[in-house]
Write a structure and sequence with these properties.
- 45% of the residues lie in helices and 12% in strands.
- The protein contains 17 helices and 10 strands.
- The strands form 2 sheets. Strands 1-2-5-6-7-8-9-10 form an 8-stranded parallel sheet, sandwiched between helices.
- Helix 7 packs parallel to helix 8.
- The longest helix has 29 residues.
- The termini are far apart.
- Bound molecules: zinc ion.
- Zinc ion binds next to strand 1.
Length: 372
């Protein structure tokens, strides 16, 4: 690895050649030389600013093979009434609301399209710019696929219950029992889109001994959509929504249920890593669970618009104690294999759906019948 990076520095002419080799490896199978795939990455932040995708490719370097790529569906409003000349960049920096910003999907699609075919093979772009309380949300997703065919592999990360955020969003508050969400998940199954869903398992300051507030509703939702591949982001943990003592046991119940075999978990976010490595006992409990269900967990960074490889991969290194306790098989699957399996399965399905659902304008421009 070190030899390769030195070569890259020595001669920019080597880049295309090296890139070809690394890309071929990225696409072949999970036995490639990259250390990880990232199933959870935000190219842009809460004000739709972020890292140039070509710069980001350099950060992935020879370490990260493939990345699930998305922006953030919510825009933080800069309200002059609220914060005056102070321009907030994060939702905790102002009391003004967040709103759904659908243009994020066009932005991500155009960033992806600015890459070469070989570079594109390293990304799985995701659609996020829809309001999950809107019965028309599924129609937005359909429109994005038809406007940018050949780009997207999934939807998300989008959020239903999320501490501090849900209540700040203008309009109706999202919930797990909304038929609009069912329409979205049904449509994802029809197309073959992978879903990354953020939903806190519990409320921020729960009553002692009470079961996690949203666990049963979430299970019911997942069971209503057995044909949708769903990755439950952060295993349902939040910044304040801590994993309660029985967290691993709750996950094991889901993972053992044949009616929930469509459900996966990502261990992204430094907050999640913090809990996992907080004590040798917590690390061992997590490792035991993953070793028992190695096909069901994915590594992700949850980084937002990083500026260097070091900051981008912070969470990966934070998990060092966990990696050491996983079997070689489980480690490989969580870092790379499960990502490759899920997205390699999704991509051709989505392309086939797009081919079968071309809009009249696409068909016309392809046949050349109407050019002026
Ligand atoms: Zn995220």
């Amino acid at each position: 690895m070190r030899g390769i990076s030195r070569l890259l520095v020595l001669s920019k002419r080597c880049v295309p050649l090296l890139l070809c080799c690394t890309l071929a490896a990225a696409q072949s199978d999970s036995s490639d030389k990259f250390e990880l795939n990232d199933s959870h990455f935000h190219l842009t932040n809460y004000i739709q600013e972020g890292t140039d995708i070509h710069e980001f490719l350099k950060m992935m370097g020879t370490k990260v093979g493939r990345v699930a790529l998305f922006g953030i569906p919510l825009q933080q409003e800069w309200s002059y009434q609220n914060s005056g000349d102070y321009a907030p960049t994060y939702y905790l920096q102002t009391d003004s609301p967040l709103y759904y910003y659908s243009f994020t999907d066009a932005y991500i699609a155009m960033a992806y399209r600015s890459l070469s075919k070989e570079e594109q093979a390293r990304f799985e772009p995701m659609i996020t710019g829809f309001n999950p309380t809107d019965m028309y949300a599924a129609d937005h997703i359909r429109r994005v696929l038809q406007t940018f065919p050949g780009v997207f592999s999934g939807i998300g990360e989008f959020s239903i219950h999320k501490e501090f955020v849900s209540a700040k969003i203008a309009g109706e508050t999202a919930d797990l029992q909304n038929r609009a969400l069912d329409r979205v998940l049904d449509f994802a199954a029809e197309v073959g889109l992978v879903v990354i869903l953020h939903n806190d398992m519990d409320v921020p300051f729960p009553k002692q001994g009470a079961p996690p507030a949203y666990l049963e509703q979430m299970k019911a939702l997942l069971k209503r959509h057995p044909n949708t591949t769903i990755i439950w982001a952060h295993t349902g943990v939040g910044r304040i929504v801590r994993p309660i003592k029985d967290h691993a046991a709750n996950l094991a119940v889901i993972l053992s249920d044949p009616a929930l075999k469509n459900v996966y978990f990502d261990i992204s976010w430094d907050e999640v890593a913090k809990y996992v490595v907080s004590s040798p006992e917590a690390t061992k409990t997590t490792a035991d669970l993953i070793n028992r269900f190695p096909d069901r967990f994915l590594f992700g960074t949850d980084e937002v618009a990083p500026t260097s490889q070091q900051s981008y991969l912070k969470v990966f290194y934070q998990y060092e104690p966990l990696w050491k306790l996983l079997t070689p098989e489980a480690s490989e699957k969580v870092r790379k294999g499960n990502f490759a399996r899920l997205f390699d399965e999704a991509r051709p399905k989505v392309r086939a759906w797009e081919a079968a659902h071309k809009t009249p304008s696409q068909t016309t421009s392809e046949s050349g019948a109407h050019i002026d």
